[in-house]
Specification:
30% of the residues lie in helices and 25% in strands. It contains six helices and seven strands. The chain has helices at 45-56, 58-63, 77-86, 100-104, 110-115, 148-156, and strands at 12-15, 21-24, 31-37, 66-73, 92-96, 122-127, 133-139. The strands form two sheets. Strands 5-4-3-6-7 form a five-stranded mixed sheet. Strands 1-2 form a two-stranded antiparallel sheet. The chain has 161 residues and is an alpha/beta fold. The two termini are 20 Å apart.
Length: 161
């Protein structure tokens, strides 16, 4: 599925690092920034850098009332919990062990990726309080990583996304 401005994301069911289920949409009314990535990227220093950019700018995200949620597709909650602790993340890192969300968002395993150029390594979705997409970005890790700092600057200057 390709998301564009105004799209609502379908309901997703994920797992918190403590093993408890997590559902979206929830009762949260904040804007939400989702960062979904493939499990192989957990070992990538570039993706660690992207996650640390999110972590290091949490005061700014919170000031704009944006909840940050990262999703590691294909890993179980114990692996995600260890990774969360290694990076001292200060936002939710959820697991998508059955890769249901990854399949819906067209984030597939590497074998599929070689055949289908529309499949991506990562997605960033910024949703408004009504859970509609106001910003989307996706890519392949070998070509580009998410520009969280650029997104923050645009949000802070109230530029059109």
């Amino acid at each position: 599925m390709r998301f564009k401005k105004g799209d609502r994301i379908p309901e997703i069911n994920l797992v918190q690092k403590n093993g408890e289920p997590w559902f979206f949409p929830s009762k949260e009314t904040n804007k939400t920034l989702f960062f979904l990535f493939r499990p192989v990227e957990m070992e990538s220093s570039l993706f660690r850098t992207a996650l640390c950019q999110l972590r290091d700018n949490m005061k700014l995200w919170r000031a704009m009332e944006i909840s940050v949620i990262a999703i590691c597709s294909g890993k179980n909650h114990e692996q995600v919990s260890r990774f969360h602790n290694q990076l001292s993340l200060n936002f939710e890192l959820l697991s998508d062990p059955g890769m249901r969300t990854a399949h819906i968002w067209k984030l597939e395993d590497q074998s599929t990726q070689q055949e289908d150029k529309s499949v991506k390594d990562w997605f960033v979705l910024l949703l408004d309080e009504n859970h509609k997409a106001v910003y989307t970005e996706s890519g392949r890790s070998s070509k580009a990583l998410p520009g969280f700092n650029g997104l923050l600057k645009r949000l802070m200057s109230n530029s059109e996304l």
